[in-house]
Automatic annotation (TrEMBL):
Organism of this sequence: Trichuris muris (Mouse whipworm)
Disordered, as annotated region: 857-877
Lineage: Eukaryota, Metazoa, Ecdysozoa, Nematoda, Enoplea
Gene3D superfamilies given in the database record: 3.30.70.270, Acid Proteases (2.40.70.10), HIV Type 1 Reverse Transcriptase, subunit A, domain 1 (3.10.10.10)
Highest taxon listed in the record's lineage: Eukaryota
Keyword Hydrolase: yes
Family annotation (Pfam families): RT_RNaseH (PF17917), RVT_1 (PF00078)
Protein name: RNA-directed DNA polymerase
Keywords annotated in UniProt: Coiled coil, Endonuclease, Hydrolase, Nuclease, Nucleotidyltransferase, RNA-directed DNA polymerase, Transferase
SUPFAM superfamilies with a match to the protein in the record: Acid proteases, DNA/RNA polymerases
Sample GO molecular function, one term: RNA-directed DNA polymerase activity
EC main group: transferase
Domain Reverse transcriptase positions: 458-644
Amino acid sequence: MSEMGEIVELFRKQMEVQQQQIEEQRKQIEKLLSFLGPVSATPPAVASSVPSFPAFDPTSELWKEYWARFKTFAGANSIPAENTLAVQQSPPKDINELSMENIAEPMENQYDPRRFVVRERFKFWSDMQRKPGETVQELAARIRQEAATCDFASIKDPQDEALRTRFICSISNEAVLKALFKIKDDDLSFNRAVQIAVETEDAAHVAKETVYGTKTKMVFKTDEERLTNAKRQVQFLRERWPYCSGMLEEKEIDGEYWPNFRETGPQQFEDSEPIIQILSLNGVQIEFELDTGARDNFCSYDVWTRLEKPKLKKPHSRYFSATKEQLRILGVCKVKAKTLHKLLPVELNVTPLPQFNVLGRRTIRDLDIDVRASLNGESASVGNVHAIRPHDEPNIALQRACKELCNKFPDLFKPELGCLKDFELEISFKPDAKPVFCKPRTVPYAIQEELNQAYDAGIKQGVWVPVQFNDYGTPVVPVRKSLAQDQRKVTLRVCGDYSVKVNPQLEIHRHPMPLPEELMRKLSGGYYFTKIDLADAYTQIKLAPVSQRRLALSTHRGVLLQTCLPFGISSAPGYFQKIMEQLTSDLRGVAVYLDDILVSGNNAEEHVQNLQALFQRLSEKGLRCKLEKCSFAQPSVEYLGHVLSHHGVSKGSKVDAVMKMPPPSNVSRLRSFLGSVQFYSKFIPNLSVLAEPLTRLTRKDVPWAWTAKEQASFQALKDSLCTDAVLAHFDPSQQIGVSCDASDVGIGAVLFHRYVDGSERPTANASKTLTDAERRYSQVEKEALAVIFALKKFHQFLYGRHFILVTDHKPLVTLFGPTKGTPALAANRLARWALVLNQYDYSIEYRKTAEHSNADALSRLPAEDDPEFDEGKRRLM
């Protein structure tokens, strides 16, 4: 029997007891009324002329209705109030001295007591089933009678009422139900009901921990185990202490024998640290707590979702804690547990409890897990499965060890510019490449001094070398850049505009980027993660003499040879990736994707060893790192759209923009959302059925009303957009693109793959609401901001490879075209953003707004603010 069925059964039994009491009271009243006959104070003439009125029957009629009929009867027969006598239930008052009004209040209190509307509606929706042999008319009459006490006419907010009732009917905690039933209907909204439930359950947990002093270990037992143990305890008590037999009480519940003992409180256990096991289920790394007191396995709803929601079956058993609380089981699923030597099927009982992942003794035995070794603090290994201590929080000791390691390599963190030793990079140009010299651009007087200081600093560091003559010359665009997040002072950054004359003549270095799966395999299940930041990464790569002249800058101070690899060269990412792979290929626990270097290990000792090997290699090669931008021993890190942790690999924030999308507030925004869904219609089965409530709402003859039905359709469509049927996995071998759009309230972007047949599937989504300042931008600036937002969000996917930039704003095609160059007279903000695009290899594509609905919906229904991007934009500007 389900939990709700058990609650309904309890209510039914309680009502049967009440009916028996009412029947006994009715018999007493009839006995008293029969006794009243000879004592009647009504004159014989009146008594003979007034027809008889039936006695009140509590089993067939409500007191309120009976009393209304009685007053109508008395008025119709002209019976004076002083002559209408009644029998009061509470002697010793003389019944001849009581009038009809005297008895009204006590009778109403007895047979029509104050009813709590919340409880009445709970009973109405929980216990309304047709009885065996009951006719349709009888069922309808019973429904009307039950509805009379529910006061449905007073409902002001149908949606909130539906949510509240559904929530209360789903509650199985008796204490929570009692607390909810005490609240007046007007004071109990859905949110208030949730708050009361949370407070009541929290108070119960705190009370248990306060009373018993230590934490209660939740050892769950099946019905069979519980019954066997109970019988053994009863038999033991009767044999050992026969005089204690009175303490035992036997019952028949659901056809099974259960002994009830006097409560002695929860069983006490030492509050020791749990034993944690990492297990690979269906290819996903999941953390379990080893529990030899539990026979079966349990997992949380979140873990079931991470396993892509395998099919659930009806649970085989019921489970109870040491405190006799029944554990709610959503269902049982089968998954495959992979070890080094075999593939084992494992059953998981899915529970709604968060972070409740328990590995029972059966699976512990089947996998040969050495629990004793784990208790002694050792690492128990089963193939590729390792028992470790939990570490969801940063490991302070490991962080301290990593930072102490930095002190052993002082040269690695020096502020001056590094340079890769014994290496010069030759940039490949096309055979028909011709020298092009562009005259220097005019520098405003206001920034000439700052620009001269930037040139002097670069020449001193060896980034540029002044020369008098050169065949090549690229114009300069100065960009203001913040020194750090906590500093408001800005400085000028000198950038060459290579987009027009240099990049078209380059032979693109198509070095294959590593697949995400390859990088995940190196780091998955690692013991914390350290991220290393190279200071001005590209600038540490020295150019060959010929390349220095071809990439020279044309400035107001003359020609400056570019001695280091600059930003803005379209082939630079490919060269840099190849160099870093050659540099770190033999290092364990190190993964490199462009300028992101991640380090991990199977344990703390190995983590430090791998980090030391990386530091040693970088220091020997003359490279420099930026200590303040490095992060050490983090429990998780987002990498290429995935979250890496000791749990394994999980989806990152690539679907947050869709899942956090708020409901549309008008027809225009609803049409935009439906357009984005229709964009991927070929991947969503039964789309017309799912979208029907929303489609109907867009009709002119249908008034706007967003109810629970529309919300359910909206949520179902959002879930469909995030399934694997629609959302593609990132594949570097496929053509990639990004769609960007802006509205008055937000900006949105969709990263997608375009396939040979021309179809597109998204791989990630992103959106943000505009700040007050951004809402005052012109439309072209908003559209340009959406492009910059997309590049920053999807930098790891786009940088170093060719991609398609899709926009529905035609001026951007001219402004940001890769062969157009940075406009000299464009707004300062747009000029800086154009320089950002120069670092990427892309082609721009215009698409009509009607065909651009995937990004359009994200911009009109943005998820939330993005403080990280806003801060980065401020520093760029």
